[in-house]
Design brief:
The chain is an alpha/beta fold and about 200 residues long. It is built from seven helices and seven strands, in the order H-E-E-E-H-H-E-H-H-H-E-H-E-E. Belongs to the ExbD/TolR family.
């Protein structure tokens, strides 16, 4: 009796397009992803009820005031502005900085050390211990840094600085009000407050 032979069919699966797609997605994430920024002070942003449209990463001449853990610090994004601001403050208070110190300071990202200790801080930068243990700025020192950085921004880029305030959610309101009053004394009435968006369910 005849018995038909059933041939097993093998289907080859081509994985090459899948690997191509994976490579494209990975490249997109690497080019467009934002690295996590670690600040010297812990800041838990307060939740807002509406979407925050102000994006700090979309501005070049950007100044961010950091408020948290009973400390005030300043983040200047442009290296040339940091260098120029240091020179101007040094000239104002008769503190001399060498070209090497100015260049090294341009590589810092967050200013949280008083002027009296800034030379020691620059010599140790980037020392993680010194970076995370910065004592913070007094309100008048913060005002000087903002004033000189705004002047440097106008001279170098012929533009005004965009001010952002990033404060911890537990910060007492009077502390934030003091910072806002200080900005008002410099006739800065336009600034953005950074908060996290709490999506309504």
């Amino acid at each position: 009796m005849y018995r038909p032979e059933f041939r097993r069919k093998h289907f080859d699966v081509d994985m090459f397009p899948m690997f191509n797609l994976l490579l494209i997605v990975l490249s997109f994430l690497m080019l467009n992803g934002r690295p996590a920024i670690r600040y010297p002070i812990l800041i838990n942003l307060p939740a807002g009820s509406s979407f925050n449209t102000a994006d700090p990463d979309s501005y070049f001449t950007l100044t961010t005031i950091l408020i948290g853990q009973k400390k005030l610090m300043l983040k200047l994004d442009a290296p040339d502005i940091r260098e120029a601001a240091l020179k101007q403050i040094g000239d104002k208070y008769n503190v001399g900085f060498t070209p090497d110190e100015i260049n090294k300071f341009g590589k810092t990202d967050v200013i949280g050390t008083p002027l009296a200790q800034i030379k020691k801080y620059i010599s140790g930068y980037y020392n993680a211990t010194d970076y995370y243990n910065q004592p913070g700025l007094r309100l008048d020192e913060l005002a000087e840094w903002i004033k000189e950085s705004r002047k440097a921004t106008f001279e170098k880029h012929n533009s005004s600085t965009r001010i952002f305030i990033m404060a911890d959610g537990e910060t007492p309101y009077p502390v934030i009000k003091d910072v806002i009053d200080m900005l008002a004394q410099q006739k800065i009435t336009k600034f953005s407050i950074i908060y996290s968006y709490l999506r309504q369910i």
